[in-house]
Amino acid sequence: MSNGSAQRSSLRHLATRDPVVMVVDDQESNVRLVGTVLTQAGFEVVPAMSGEQALKRASAAPPDLVLLDMLMPGMNGIDIMTALRERPETAHLPAIFLTAAHEREHLVRAFEAGAVDYVTKPFVAEELLARVRTHLELKLARDHLKRIAREREELAAMVAHDLKNPLTGIHFSAQLLLREEDGTRPADLARVILESTESALAFIARYLERRAEGELVRALDTERVRPAAAIEQAVGRFALQAQGKTIRLDADLAPVPDVLADPGALAQMLDNLLSNAIKFSAPGGEVTVALGEGAPGRVRIMVLDRGPGVSEHDRKRLFQRYVRLGARPTGGESSTGLGLALAKQDVERMHGELWYEDRPGGGAVFAFDLPMAPPEA
Fold first, then answer.
1. Does the global pTM surpass 0.85?
2. pLDDT given for residue 213 in this prediction
């Protein structure tokens, strides 16, 4: 493999696509010449014939690097560079100036505006490509490191959140065991502790297995699942928590076909939705999990409560990470703002859909559809 091909492959690996270079020049012949050199080297080229056009296209789809002519009518290269730095989506784009020899006195201003390099016109193609590749490698490597850091942060948050529900079940059951006057059967509490422990251990096993295989913790494998059984198990896991707040927890299960789902992810989704419903329901309220047919070829699961519902303002942020809504848990429970975001992420990875509706008569409905499994042979 030639050096140019190796560099091209390295850049494509970092970007997971062909790197994009925006070429800004008011002379069409210059844009065509530079564009041809870059295209032949394996870059995707976005042309812009003016500063206004460059800013509009960069804001709509930020490139990986900008090649700017120094002097142009209207907005010159320094004006464009300054404007790019003022916009969050383009603030960190590397920019290389193309400058004629007699324009070099402007370079100090160009570097002050944020330029990373310059190439003198008329340029040598090999020099231009070398400088473009160098600054693309630096930019894409920074992006790659930021992406890894963000994924690790999200991974840590997901692990902590997904272990929270089974640990809460264990903690609550242990509290009840210490209150002999509650009259709860020790066998029921032992069952909750056992199921919560099994759930936590199964999650850790899946996590370690997928990490060993280089996959994300929430990589999903779909299989045929009986939704009624998954719901009954989830209701059983939360029965004591609901009882602790004198909330009636019911399941309304219509006969439906099996679904295609990841069993662990489906259980986690139900846990997240039930946990939220119980948290935001007042003592003496009710929570129902309903099962029925949804859109054609889909099964629908709904978690209904009589809590405060979701305000119009909060609906716009409902499934975003770390967003705490205006309503507060009625029993002082903690809320991370992650449960709904993770539930939506999981259902979409299972080719389903999750949404919110107001419940007639007051309260909230969180519903999701999953694809039906094909008939068994």
1. no
2. 46
